[in-house]
Amino acid sequence: MAGEENSEGGLVFHPLQQFEVHRLFGEGPLQWYTITNATLWLALALVGIILVFVMGSSRRSLVPGRLQSIGEVAYDFVHNMVDDVAGHDGAKYFPLVMTLFVFVLFSNMLGLIPSAFAPTSHIAVTAILGFGVFLFVTLLGFVKHGAHFLGLFWMKDAPLVLRPVIAVIELISYFVRPVSHSIRLAGNIMAGHAVMKVFAAFAPMILISSNRCCRDPGVDPRHHRNLRAGGAGRLHPGLCFHHPDLCLSARCPASRSLNIVSNPIRSIPS
User: Fold this and answer.
1) Tens digit of pLDDT for each residue in 73-114?
2) Ranges 20-24, 178-182, 261-265, most confident
């Protein structure tokens, strides 16, 4: 829900509540084996991947259907990207890149469903992905090149005086990279969903607040229609919120009781 009414009659909503991990069955502390909402949406992402890339492409039709077309487009996109970045020799690592790509894609897309849970909004998920790739690349580098892999941090073309400084900078950058990538993905998903929920909550807030417009019997309803904001035009009567900081009417009982409104126009906080 976008929000809920509190005991004082206001509207309260929590944009970060959608990122809470809770168990689906029973009560008690969370354990590593507990089935939670995160487990559910991770499983749904896996089911979506199987439907598109396994069942959707099982017929291998010359005239592909919708699911097969989606799978082929994603396959070609990732394969061409790996071929451009790593060359033809990097095609052997295409399954790993494709797996990571479709997992992040489906997790993010499922998170767009209202009231859904985005697994990639948690640093625990993105950190596992980031450090898993980091360890794989590091071990692969030592297996293929041995100690010469450390030459990645030693710039032979740089002046001799600057080589140690550049080596330290490159080493720090190499180890910080999985951390920055993990925080970047989780932060983007969390911030994007929180902002969407905040803006989505404005609509019911305005509707509920307009229904609770000042009900003072001594206030002429035409008073609200005749208000002008600096001559810009007439204001809608529903803009009179029953809140001392938002009430546009000088006769509003909420604002008059606090003696904060002396002018209908200047009552709007700057």
Assistant:
1) 999 999 999 989 888 888 889 999 999 999 999 999 888 887
2) 178-182
* CA dist., res. 18 & res. 39, Å (int): 15
Residues 17 and 1: their CA atoms lie apart, in Å, by: 10
Identify which of 60, 40, 63 has the alpha carbon closest to the alpha carbon of residue 115.
Answer: 40
Whether the pTM exceeds 0.85: the reply is no
Output the CA torsion 31→32→33→34 (10° steps): 50
Spatial neighbors of 10 by CB under 8 A, at least 6 apart, are 243
**Beta carbons of 164 and 105 less than 8 angstroms apart:** no
Examine the pLDDT at 231 and tell me if it is beyond 70.
no
